[in-house]
Design a protein that fits this description.
alpha/beta
Length: 332
């Protein structure tokens, strides 16, 4: 599944399920994600949906990152199969802010990385998971000509870890810690207001390395496309083993060779799933409509069936759960 698209123009609108119009768009088809997803047992479904017009607000993240790109793709793909569903995207600070916006009912749906999603769901309350997004392999990237080749080489270096409220930033700190580096003392951590600012800092020599996540993360492809190319690496092998313990939110992932320009070998790393969460009190029929529309799109990782085994059954949104039961899918 590709997300190579420019950062969308974010819009705001009414919250809840009400009458609205939605723009049409074209979903992007599946590509090299298939190799990465094999370890997660990704499957597809194609149920039906209703006809009442529904308008929902989706919280994404700062421009230039993976969440706004996914939000644009998600909204266009849903509109293409059900034009009566209007998904309006709202730029935010990222996963941490999105959890707060959902809890207070200021948005209907929010994109949340696993580092924030799993703890938020474990705290109880009425937050639920409407759909999966995709697994996010975390990686460090440096210019190809850099002397930095592994996490240990980052000691004393300036490393862009992400934005202030991003789940990717949390995962980056964990990757450093598990690999034997204190993310506050052994490196010079750099935090951003906008995810899209990271590549320029590396190009201009103001940062030595950039942390990010996802096969289609814009920052990765921006640096890989530079004339000199880029080098990617994950946590140390010991760090991967520490982070990918049974029952942990993060898992060992292999980034296939050729995922990025100039990348000739597979890369071992860790990652976690990100999710589309729903606010407390979101109408079940509205959630059902969105989940059913997603099941008809060409977004392989966002299929509702893929939630089985990723999150506790009781944290799956009732609308999504109803859709899965109707399709004969066991939630346990």
């Amino acid at each position: 599944m590709e997300f190579h698209s420019p950062a969308p123009v974010e819009t705001t609108g009414g919250i809840g399920a009400s009458s609205a119009s939605g723009g049409l768009g074209r979903p992007r088809g599946p590509t090299r994600r298939v190799a990465l997803l094999a370890g997660f047992g990704v499957i597809l479904a194609r149920p039906t949906w209703g006809s009442e017009v529904v308008r929902l607000v989706l919280a994404t993240a700062t421009p230039g990152g993976g969440f706004p790109a996914f939000g644009e793709t998600l909204a266009h793909a849903i509109a293409a199969v059900d034009p009566t569903l209007a998904i309006e995207r709202r730029a935010t600070g990222g996963s941490a802010e999105n959890v707060g916006l959902l809890r207070t009912g200021r948005v209907d749906l929010g994109l949340v990385q696993g580092a924030y999603a799993y703890p938020a769901l474990a705290e109880g309350g009425d937050l639920t998971v409407l759909a999966p997004m995709y697994p996010t392999p975390g990686l460090f990237v440096v210019p190809a000509g850099s002397a930095i080749r592994s996490v240990s080489d980052l000691r004393g270096r300036r490393v862009v870890l992400g934005t202030h409220n991003s789940g990717l930033t949390v995962m980056g700190r964990s990757a450093l810690s598990a690999s034997g580096l204190d993310p506050e003392r052994d490196i010079s951590p750099m935090l951003l207001d906008r995810a899209g600012d990271g590549p320029a800092l590396v190009r201009e020599g103001r940062a030595d390395a950039l942390w990010g996540g996802g096969l289609d993360w814009p920052g990765f492809h921006a640096l890989a496309a530079d004339p000199g190319g880029a080098r990617f690496f994950g946590p140390s092998e010991a760090g991967i083993a520490r982070l990918a313990q049974p029952g942990a939110a993060t898992r060992r992932l292999t980034v296939p060779a050729g995922s990025f320009a100039g990348q000739t070998d597979p890369i071992e790393t860790v990652g976690s799933w990100s999710f589309v969460l729903a606010r407390p009190g979101l109408r079940e029929d509205a959630a059902y409509r969105v989940a059913a529309a997603l099941a008809r799109t060409d977004l392989p990782t966002a299929q509702p069936k893929n939630l089985v085994g990723l999150v506790p059954a009781d944290r799956i949104n009732p609308g999504t759960a109803r859709l899965l039961r109707e399709a004969g899918v066991s939630l346990r």
